[in-house]
Every structure is written in C-alpha cells, then in structure tokens.
Amino acid sequence: MKILIVNGPNLNLLGKREPEVYGNSSFDEYFSTIKEKYPHVEFQYFQSNIEGELIDKIQECGFSYDGIVLNAGAYTHTSIAIADAIRAITTPVIEVHISNVFQREEFRHHSFLSEVCRGVICGFGLDSYRLAIESFGV
Ligand code: DQA
C-alpha cells in the first residue's frame, strides 16, 4: 500500500504557526508516529508552498499510489488548478484540514477540492491525517 501525504502552503510551520489553531507539534514529529503505527505502508511526504509543485506531485503519484491525503492549506479555498489535477488522476484523494474550517472565517467554508475528493476530514487536529489514512483501509 502506497500513500502520499501532501501539505500545502505554510504547513511547513506546524508547531510554530498559530499554535492555538494548529497545535504545538511539527509535522515531522507527527509523521514519525504515523510511520511507526503503519510500518507496512509505504509513505511519501511532500510539502510545498508553491501551487504548481503541489500539482506536479499529485500528477506524479496520481496514477500509481493507492491514496493521497491532501491538506492544500489556503489553496483549498482558491485553487481550480489543484481541483483539475485531482480530477485528472485515478488515485483517490482525501481532503484534510487540521482545524474545523467551518468554525472559522466565512472564506474558509468553501473548498474547490471537496467535490473532486473521495471524502473530507477536518477539525480533529493532526489526527485528521490518521483518520484519512485509515479510510484507505490500512
Ligand atoms: C487548513 C485550513 C486552511 O483554511 C488554512 O488556510 C490552512 C490550514 C487546516 O489544516 O486547518 O493553511 O487547511
């Protein structure tokens, strides 16, 4: 089983960025616990602040991986290009958010990605990623 985890803009700052919203743990710390928990899964982790790089990675893995867990950060609310990339591939994508975007500003309530993703998980902190991973039946 091969799963790609993709984090978009500003998620490289997890642990430092708005800890009251996103928590105190860096993604690397969290990712080590995930790799220990699912040793049989081949994970690839990719983070970029650049929209086109996220699209390149989705295209690269989107025909051969079993699942993609995507937190596109603020591009969730703006990017038709990422939505089109998800539409173009065959690997199912789960949209993930650490925070409950529906308890936040109105502009975070709309996602261009949800309609092309298999499902959406939001509001469970970093545990949102684990829930998305488990949805692939690992
Ligand atoms: C986020 C929510 C987005 O609205 C925000 O722009 C992010 C993170 C989340 O994980 O809660 O960067 O995707």
Walkthrough of the structure:
Helix content is 31%, strand content 19%. It is α/β, with parallel strands linked by helices. The protein has a single domain (2-105), classed as Rossmann fold, CATH 3.40.50.9100. The chain has a five-stranded parallel beta sheet, sandwiched between helices. Helix 3 (51-61) packs parallel to helix 4 (80-88). The radius of gyration is 14 Å and the shape is globular. The model has no long low-confidence stretch (mean pLDDT 97). Bound molecules: 1,3,4-trihydroxy-5-OXO-cyclohexanecarboxylic acid.
- Strand arrangement in the largest pleated sheet: 2-1-3-4-5
CATH superfamily: Dehydroquinase, class II
Calculate the terminal CA-CA distance, rounded to whole Å.
Answer: 8 Å
The largest sheet is: 5 strands, parallel
| Helix share, percent | 25-40%
For this structure, what is the CATH class?
Alpha Beta
Number of helices: 5
Bound molecules: 1,3,4-trihydroxy-5-OXO-cyclohexanecarboxylic acid
- How much β-strand is present in the residues? 15-25%
Total domains, how many?
A: 1
Order of helices and strands: EHHEHEHEEH
Mean pLDDT: 97
Low-confidence stretches: none
At the fold tier of CATH, the topology name is Rossmann fold
Radius of gyration: 14 Å
